[in-house]
Amino acid sequence: MRFLSMYKKRERGVPPSEEEMTRMGKLIEEWTKSGYLLGVEGCLPSALGAKVRQTEGKYTITDGPFTEAKEVVGGMAILKVTSKAEAIEITKKFLAVAGDGECELRQLYDPPA
Known about the structure:
The model has no long low-confidence stretch (mean pLDDT 91). The relative contact order is 0.33. With 113 residues, this protein is α+β, with helices and mostly antiparallel strands. The two termini are 13 Å apart. Helix content is 28%, strand content 36%. The protein has a single domain (2-107), classed as 2-Layer Sandwich (Alpha-Beta Plaits), CATH 3.30.70.1060. β3 (50-55) and β4 (58-63) form a beta hairpin. It is globular.
């Protein structure tokens, strides 16, 4: 079973420190070797992004930064686990390294074999 984990946090406008990058790198390496981590990406500041919305066939594009948002997606990971409970435990370990914020876990569709 696979879960998408979306890490949401307050945007701080500065890149992670070398120490933070080292700690996260160790965690990513450990999880990749164990098979828990199938993919991971960090997000650049929302100032470089855009929101695209469709309402009744019309599009609205809003360029970043997204100041109206209290939290933004800071990164994502795809986890391979045996249960939702295991995904939650892994996410707790991630947050212990990443710091304040929250992760939204969404189970991904796995087509029948």
